[in-house]
Design a protein that fits this description.
Blueprint (H helix, E strand, L loop, with lengths): L3 H6 L3 H23 L5 H16 L5 H33 L1 H8 L1 H16 L3 H28 L5 H5 L1 H16 L11 H6 L2 H10 L7 H7 L3 H12 L6 H14 L7 H6 L4 H16 L2 H14 L4 H29 L1 H25 L6 H18 L4 H8 L6 H30 L3 H19 L8 H11 L29
Helix pairs in contact: 2-7, 2-9, 2-11, 4-5, 4-7, 4-22, 5-7, 6-7, 6-11, 7-21, 7-22, 9-18, 12-13, 16-22, 16-23, 17-18, 17-20, 18-19, 18-20, 19-20, 19-23
Length: 506
C-alpha cells in the first residue's frame, strides 16, 4: 500500500494543471515581453519614423529616434517596479489566485492596443502598452511564486517554485522564435507579434478560476479551515491525509498571531527578520547585477566578432535560448535532489568563471586566432550557469524564508530590488562598456564571487523543511530567543526553537 509520504511526493494532476495555468498566464508574460522587441527593433523604429513623417513631413533625427526607442524599452522595468509596489496590497486583499486573475487586465488591454497601433498610426500606443505590460510582469513575478510556493507540498516546493523562471525562459524563447524575420519579425507581422501576449492571459482567465486559492491564505488570512481542507484534498488527491499539513498551517498561524501582518516599514525595523530581509535583497540584486542582461545585450557583438553574419546571429540567439530552457528545466528537476544552496553556488561559480574567460577572450581575440569562438562558448556557459542557479532558485528561496504575515511585504521589497537593478543594468551598462570595454565583465565576476560567499555563509539549505522550521533556523542567526515548541500539535516535527513568542513577536 502506498505510504502517505510517497503520496505527498507525487504530483497530482490538479496541482500540475493549476501550476500550468498560473505560470503560463503570468511568468510567460514577463519573459515574452522582455525579449519580443529585441530582434525586430529595426522594423519598429522604421514604423516610428514613418509615423513621425506622416505627421510632420520630415523624419526624426537619429538622436530623437534612439531616445524614443530607449524609452520604449526602459518603461517596461519601470512598469515592473510599479507592479511590485502594488502586489503586497493585492495579494492580501484579493488572494494569490485573485491577484493573478486581476493582473490579466494589464496584459489583455495592451495586447489590443499594440495590435491596432499600426492601423491607428500611433507608436505612442506601443510605449503606453509597455508600461502596462511592465506592471503585469511586476505583479506576476511576485504573486506567482507566492501562489505556487503555498500550493505545493514541502517535498515539491522547490520544483514548483522554479516554474516561475521556467516559464519566463519559455516566454523569452518563444519571443525569439516568433521574432525571426521569416515568421513575425517583419513589417507586416509585428502587430501580431506584439499582440500574442494577450493569448496566455485570456487562457488563464478561462482556466485558473477552476483551481483553488492558496490553502495557506484561505486558512491563515481568511480563517476558513474547511475551505482550506477542501483545497488541499483537491491538490493532494482525495486519498491523501491533509491533517498534518493543516496542523503545520495552524502552527504557523499561532506563531504569527501576536504580530499581525507586517508592513514594509515594519519589515525593515523588525529584528527577527533581519537576515531574511538582507538575504532576499542580496539574492535579487545578485541575480541582476551578476550581468545576465548585460551578457544578452553584448551577445550580438560577441557573435559578430566570431565571424557570425548579422543575418545569422538571430539563430545563434535562439540556440542560446534552447540552452537556457534546458538548463532551467534541469534545475527544476535537480532542486529537490541537490538542494537550493548547491545549485546557487555552482551557478554563480560557472557565471564568474565564464566572465573571467570572456574578458580574456575579448581582450586578445585580435591577436590569437580562435579566441573569438571561445567568447561565444563563454556566453553559452554563462547562460547555462545562470539558468541552473541564479535565475530560477531565488524564486523558491524568497517564498520559503518568510512566513505568511511577512511574505507580502517581503515580496514588495524583493520586487523593488529586482526591477531597480534590472533598470540600472540596462541603463548603465552601455556607458560602462564603452568606458572600460571588456573589463566590465570583471565587475560581474566580482559580483558573482561576493554573492556566492554570502550564500555559503548565511543562507541555509531549505530543501524539505516546513516554513516554520526554516524560520527557526533564521531565528538563531537573528539572535532571537524563542521558546520550545509545545507538544500539542499533531504530526509535528521534533522539538526545536520556535519562531513564536510574545518577546519576539514571532
Amino acid at each position: 500500500m502506498e505510504s502517505k509520504e510517497a503520496r505527498a511526493w507525487r504530483l497530482q494532476p490538479s496541482l500540475a494543471l493549476a501550476t500550468l495555468s498560473a505560470a503560463f498566464g503570468s511568468a510567460f508574460q514577463y519573459g515574452y515581453n522582455v525579449a519580443v522587441v529585441n530582434t525586430p527593433h529595426q522594423v519598429l523604429k522604421s514604423f516610428y519614423n514613418e509615423t513621425y513623417f506622416e505627421r510632420h513631413g520630415r523624419f526624426m533625427d537619429e538622436k530623437a529616434l534612439l531616445l524614443l526607442w530607449s524609452c520604449t524599452v526602459s518603461v517596461f522595468p519601470l512598469g515592473g517596479l510599479l507592479g511590485s509596489w502594488l502586489v503586497g496590497h493585492l495579494v492580501d486583499k484579493c488572494g494569490r489566485r485573485g491577484t493573478l486573475l486581476i493582473n490579466n487586465i494589464f496584459a489583455i488591454i495592451p495586447a489590443i492596443l499594440m495590435g491596432v497601433s499600426k492601423v491607428a498610426r500611433a507608436f505612442e500606443l506601443i510605449i503606453f502598452s509597455r508600461v502596462l505590460l511592465g506592471v503585469c510582469a511586476g505583479i506576476s513575478y511576485s504573486a506567482l511564486p507566492m501562489y505556487l510556493g503555498e500550493l505545493a507540498p514541502k517535498q515539491l516546493r522547490g520544483a514548483l517554485g522554479t516554474m516561475t523562471e521556467v516559464f519566463v525562459i519559455i516566454g523569452v524563447f518563444l519571443a525569439q522564435v516568433f521574432s525571426l524575420q521569416a515568421i513575425l519579425g517583419n513589417a507586416t507581422g509585428w502587430p501580431v507579434l506584439l499582440a500574442v501576449t494577450g493569448i496566455p492571459a485570456l487562457l488563464q482567465l478561462l482556466s485558473l478560476p477552476f483551481f483553488p486559492e492558496s490553502p495557506r491564505y484561505t486558512l491563515i488570512q481568511k480563517g476558513d479551515e474547511e475551505a482550506a481542507r477542501r483545497a488541499l484534498r483537491r491538490l493532494r488527491g482525495r486519498a491523501a491525509d491533509v491533517e498534518a499539513e493543516l496542523d503545520d498551517m495552524r502552527e504557523e498561524e499561532r506563531a504569527e498571531r501576536a504580530e499581525g501582518h507586517l508592513s514594509v516599514l515594519n519589515l525593515f525595523t523588525f529584528r527577527p527578520l533581519r537576515w531574511q530581509l538582507v538575504s532576499i535583497i542580496v539574492l535579487m540584486a545578485g541575480q541582476q547585477l551578476s550581468g545576465i542582461n548585460a551578457i544578452n545585450y553584448y551577445a550580438d557583438t560577441i557573435y559578430t566578432s566570431a565571424g557570425v553574419a548579422a543575418t545569422h546571429s538571430q539563430y545563434v540567439t535562439v540556440g542560446a535560448g534552447v540552452v537556457n530552457i534546458v538548463m532551467t528545466v534541469i534545475s527544476a528537476v535537480a532542486v529537490e535532489q541537490l538542494g537550493r544552496r548547491l545549485l546557487l553556488l555552482v551557478g554563480y561559480g560557472l557565471c564568474g568563471c565564464a566572465c573571467l574567460v570572456l574578458t580574456l577572450a575579448l581582450l586578445f581575440q585580435s591577436k590569437v586566432a580562435g579566441l573569438s569562438y571561445l567568447g561565444v562558448l563563454c556566453v553559452f556557459a554563462y547562460i547555462a550557469g545562470h539558468s541552473i542557479g541564479p535565475s530560477p532558485v531565488p524564486s523558491v528561496v524568497r517564498t520559503e524564508i518568510f512566513l505568511q504575515s511577512s511574505r507580502p511585504a517581503a515580496f514588495v521589497v524583493d520586487g523593488t530590488v529586482h526591477w531597480l537593478t534590472n533598470f540600472v543594468i540596462g541603463f548603465v551598462f552601455p556607458s560602462v562598456q564603452e568606458a572600460i570595454g571588456a573589463y566590465s565583465f570583471i565587475v560581474f565576476a566580482g559580483v558573482c564571487l561576493l554573492t556566492a560567499i554570502y550564500i555559503y555563509v548565511v543562507i541555509p539549505e531549505t530543501k524539505g523543511q516546513t516554513f516554520v522550521q526554516i524560520n527557526r533556523i533564521f531565528a538563531r542567526r537573528n539572535g532571537v530567543e524563542t521558546p520550545e515548541k509545545k507538544g500539542d500539535v499533531t504530526g509535528a516535527e521534533p522539538p526545536g526553537p520556535c519562531a513564536a513568542g510574545k518577546g519576539t513577536s514571532f
